[in-house]
């Protein structure tokens, strides 16, 4: 079975030369038709030729069609194939290489390739399969719930476990003031006050 290749072959050379001669002949006939008066063609018996109006009309229509394609249709097709701005494909694809961000105690990083980092959506997986399962197990072991009001992520830093009287002392402290909008004039005076 012959291989399909764009390389020149003897058959393509013959077809190419025949097409070259055909289009040269058609162009010569077009020029003769456009410039020779209609009376000459009538005298020769060629009365079924198109009007001379088409000698200008057809090239102008072809140029307008090429211009519309180049400046409207082709860019519109490209925009139609472009994914939306809020889709993941605009910034990455399936061939993106994401490395594992796990840090060992000596400061070295894992650098294993993360398989299918964007499989779950926008948030990329940050760790390889081995370290992701290890981190999930560590996180589940550290999470401690104390008396329905403590959700400390690290048991060693839980103040309620260290000092059971911490909660009443915390409740006696002044509450944090509510967040509110600040006046820009007051902030500017405070920042740029001249001493």
N-to-C SSE series? Answer: HHHHEEHHH
Secondary structure class reads mainly alpha
Instruction: Provide the residue-averaged pLDDT.
Output: 78
Percent of residues in helices comes to 40-55%
Shape: elongated
> Helical segment tally?
7
Highlighted features:
49% helix; 2 strands; 195 residues; 7 helices; mainly alpha
Briefly say what this structure is.
The protein has helices at 10-35, 38-44, 53-81, 129-142, 159-162, 166-172, 184-191, and strands at residues 144-146, 150-152. With 195 residues, the chain is mainly α. Strand 1 (144-146) and strand 2 (150-152) form a beta hairpin.
Protein described:
- This protein is mainly alpha-helical.
- It is built from 7 helices and 2 strands.
- 3% of the residues are buried.
- The model is unreliable at 142-149 (pLDDT under 50).
What is the secondary structure topology, with strand pairs?
Blueprint: H1 10-35, H2 38-44, H3 53-81, H4 129-142, E1 144-146, E2 150-152, H5 159-162, H6 166-172, H7 184-191
Antiparallel strand pairs: 1-2
